[in-house]
Amino acid sequence: MSNLMGERWKKVNDGGERSLIKAPSSASISSQGASAGSSTAGAPAAAAAAAASTSSTSTGDLERAARKQFQQDVTPGFVYVLAVFSALGGFLFGYDTGVISGAMLLLKRELELSALWQELLISSTVAAAALSALLGGFLNGLFGRRVCILLASFFFTVGGIVLSAAPGKEVLLAGRIIVGVGLGIASMTVPVYIAEASPPHLRGQLVTVNTLFITGGQFTASLIDGAFSYLQRDGWRYMLGLSVLPAVLQFMGFLFLPESPRWLIQRGLTQKARRVLSQIRGNQNIDEEYDSIKNSIEEEEKDSGGDGPVIWRMLTYPPTRRALLVGCGLQMFQQLSGINTVMYYSATILQMSGVRDDRLAIWLAGLTTLTNFLFTLLGVWLVERVGRRKLTLGSIIGTCLSLSLLAVGFLISAQHTPPVTFHPLDPAMANSTCSKYQLCEPCMLDPGCGFCYSENSSALLTSSCVPVNKASTEHAAWGRCSNSTLMRDHTYWAYNYCPTSYSWLVLLGLMFYLAAFAPGMGPMPWTINSEIYPLWARSTGNACAAGVNWTFNILVSLTFLHLAQYFTYYGAFFLYSSLALLGFVFIYGCLPETKARRLEEIEALFENQLCSCGASDSDEGRQVEYIRVKGSNYHLSDNDASDVD
Ligand SMILES: O[C@H]1[C@H](O)[C@@H](O)[C@H](O)[C@@H](O)[C@H]1O
């Protein structure tokens, strides 16, 4: 599609550099003319235009005046309030996915949960989120963003209450599914709502704040897990129930917050849309923005044409098909880079380094979530400075390298794995595979076995490979590691890991991983998805991408232990690293820069063949701003654009 906002956008070849220019249509000139008088910045702009007509040498003055107009556009505080209340959905996303690991430690003891029930309570939420994210696309189109956010916070509230009052595991499962439904809807709606309400120059930053809230939720969850782990009875009720507070806060807030103006215009509620636009743009002139949204909706309706469900129209119309591929691909590679495995596995990595106290391990695991949070903050700072494409590319290179470092750490640890020195006889005379292992590595990779060892300050003394207790992986089925009273005199039970003196290498890999992943690969898939689809396809596109995110989340977490069993830990991390490399090639080839463009302009970026973006790297950083002065179009040159920023 080439006709946007009532004006024609053309690609021209200008000295070998591609750029977009637009030639004004008569309609836009007249509408501009009509609105110029009411514009707060209309006077300087008109004066500048007059100067331009008398002397070509005064183009500099003209551009300066135009830039001034941009700089006068102070963002009203209301947009920030709106972003923060929406991002509470991100906070709940992080909190509800993060809190379960600590709660599970208490739950499995108190309710005597089998491995299957533990798995069910963890995965049911993610599975429900995957399905409800897909359904959320339909709900968003039908009822709007605001109603969907209200619905999500309602589900979070009810889910939290059910979880904290659950009399048994069946009700717990119901509560986790209810929370999952809220998660799916919130994860696809919040980024769209923030993107549609933000001014272009702040959009990336404000949508990225949502991911900052996700990681903030994960960090808070680890603190709450740490604090309530001392409350052995019912501690989990507080951990799971506390999410009700932010959920109620968000629900109350959204009773007063407005609907997205873009959705309102699409629904023909034009007066309401104008009111909302004036509210979120403060004292700025909204005529141009309003016209541009309205025109683009009309154009989109013509261009996207055809009948049938939105997903069908998206797949048969090349620009949206490409955008959908890029959006879903980004979400898929985010999860295939193993973020949730790394986060989940951090406690074990700490145990490998010699932290044996459960509570200390829980507190220290909080360091992982804190690092994730702090580096996402860096992403918020960088997104409007370096742009989405460079940030994502840099991040995935670092992610790929750090995954290799983690793999090398596990490889060296495996090569120096301690031997099994003692083969005790099973008191029940059952034939267990555990007794066959001669080394710790194959013993710990077998989910039925664990490594029981004693050590003094400098060396490992006796060690054996024994079956794990079926009711709790914290003890062996029999022998000196079978209960805490027997485990005196520096005797330890290692399940899922081996003691190693190379854990520092793994720890280094872990920190490097989070520092690389969190600013780019963590937030950018959400941010980019919120802006690459035209309005008619936005909810469906985001629903599909969020569905892909949750589906790969569950796939990666469920397969990790099996992967490790068949390919060892280093094999699994080398695999994630190769997938991240594949992700780099995909992003390099297919992801265009969307920084500072209006949502209505972005569709044009997907008109070219997919995977031709790498070739246009020279255009990166070229930020072209279009300023209309009395019917003429001027663009600020590269250097000037940075001033506007
Ligand atoms: O963007 C988020 C964030 O990076 C989280 O830390 C992670 O747990 C989620 O799966 C991901 O979608």
UniProtKB/TrEMBL annotation:
Query: What topology does the record note for this protein and the membrane?
Result: Multi-pass membrane protein
What positions does the domain Major facilitator superfamily (MFS) profile occupy?
Answer: 82-595
Fetch the CDD domains from UniProt. MFS_HMIT_like
InterPro entries recorded: MFS_dom (IPR020846), MFS_sugar_transport-like (IPR005828), MFS_trans_sf (IPR036259), Myo-inositol_Transporter (IPR050814), Sugar/inositol_transpt (IPR003663), Sugar_transporter_CS (IPR005829)
Keyword Nucleotide-binding present in the record's keywords: the answer is no
- UniProt keyword list: Cell membrane, Glycoprotein, Membrane, Phosphoprotein, Transmembrane, Transmembrane helix, Transport
Q: Which domain of life is it from?
A: Eukaryota
What reaction is this protein's catalytic activity? myo-inositol(out) + H(+)(out) = myo-inositol(in) + H(+)(in)
Any one Pfam family here would be Sugar_tr
The family note in this entry says:
Belongs to the major facilitator superfamily. Sugar transporter (TC 2.A.1.1) family.
Give the protein's function.
Answer: H(+)-myo-inositol cotransporter. Can also transport related stereoisomers.
Stated name of the protein: Proton myo-inositol cotransporter
Q: Which species does the entry assign this protein to?
A: Amphiprion ocellaris (Clown anemonefish)
